[in-house]
């Protein structure tokens, strides 16, 4: 029994490791919580960084914290069957990652939750890949809009993911309906319920919808036909995709059916006049064969498109679909895909009768004109050879291949991207019969589709590479700004020092005119030093070099310091300066110097932009957090300006900002400092009614 329990625990641990998650067990009554080692591994944390539930709550993004707490509370109160929540958390490297948490509460006989257990893990990569996949699907949608038959892609949730233009026109479905509803198959069919397109009685319509929906859910590959009341005949095919989604293609085969009907009538008439109508029957049969062949080619193209959409990071599924359909449609012995890299031809995919896999042993080989594939790539044209054996025009290497593998006709089409050859696809058959114009056109179309897939993979890789380059460039920029700020600050401090000595008469009593110049020099130098300090702070934050110097501090002392520093500025503008500090504020633990910097910035802005009235600081504490606000009676801030206010180099009304001065860095730096303390900062304002800047942070960081 003990061994079985150990085996079960090992299997569960392996399962958690496979999904990059770990388990937790929370005693609701005592607020004690256990985290499995897998939690620390999944979230990149050390055990000392995650000892309690409060440690975890402090890491949750301020914008997501309320929703997370509401989700937990709702489950504990029995309003939800289980806890499922996604939110951002602060990773040890300083960036925001995504986490997914599951939980299930255990309840006593009264229904009160006394314990909750579940799992949690990092899903950042999953989120990033989903965003990249959306971009690729937008590009795929644009490609699908160029084809003339209907295509419907459904995601794993069986809701419409891509609906091309031909499908929308075929069924008269509006773009607005698709955008608003992201419809299911039931929604799409019911959209035309009253337009009299479906040849289904109203009393049977619900059953008809249920059958169609059931077929989609089953995911079994199938082909069906429907005759609409407007006389059009639609053939549609359902295909299950690797990701759990579905692809449906819709072909208007009305002309084909009409041709078949004409052929049937012709055959009936031929019983009475077989001799006279032989020519007509042959023509109709030929036409039917051509249309059937065209339909098979369109079906093959749809399969290749499905493989392209199903794998945006790997070309192999699409290459396999191409060689498989080449062999089926051309009735050949083998088909291959060749890729050209640095003048060398590789053969990553080949499909053929038993024994043909040995053909891949002859590759890689240099690009030359000794093979049909090489000539196709060098000439950038489709090249075929029939017969191959005993044909003086046959390239020598192809002649040898034909003798070794038993084929006597071969065709290759080059893959060309932006005028540059990147490979070729080819196929060969036993008989010495040339490939006709339709087959030449089809293999060229397959080559073009292969180029699309290769380009998608290249673009995906390029996006990832560019992202890495941008991250490196941002780091270099931050380091450059930090270095330059240091280089500028040293001589500037020297200038300010000598200016102060001259003003104090260290080099002789200055004249009144010189004193005015020295005061302006000192004021502008201090202003420039402030700008340099702001740039340096921002660079340190972006480079991850700004570290909080944690110690005990008194929030009352910080407020009094700010008041004594800035009250002369308020007095110059005849503004009232008020302090409203709740009695008995607890001592705080954090970086008091940086918090003073934040409060000086907020109060300095309030004084700068307020021409009449008052500026007030208010501080209180509750639930283990300080709540500090700076209120003014200035012009107020519009909602549009509030959205960008805490971004680097952004200010509110540009006309006012130019008049009052400033760089737009102070609020951005303040926001970063508050967030480094585990707090949040925001503004409450309306034009004409002043502004209130508020920040909260834990009493003990």
Major beta sheet, strand line-up? 13-12-11-16-15-14
Derived structural class: alpha+beta
Strand residue percentage: 15-25%
- Portion of residues within helices: 40-55%
Oligomer: single chain
Distance between the termini: 47 Å
Describe the structure in your own words.
With 701 residues, the protein is of the alpha+beta class. Strand 9 and strand 10 (246-252) form a beta hairpin. The protein has 21 helices and 23 strands. Helix content is 50%, strand content 22%. The strands form five sheets. A six-stranded antiparallel β-sheet has the order 13-12-11-16-15-14, sandwiched between helices. Strands 2-1-5-4-3 form a five-stranded antiparallel β-sheet, with helices on both faces.
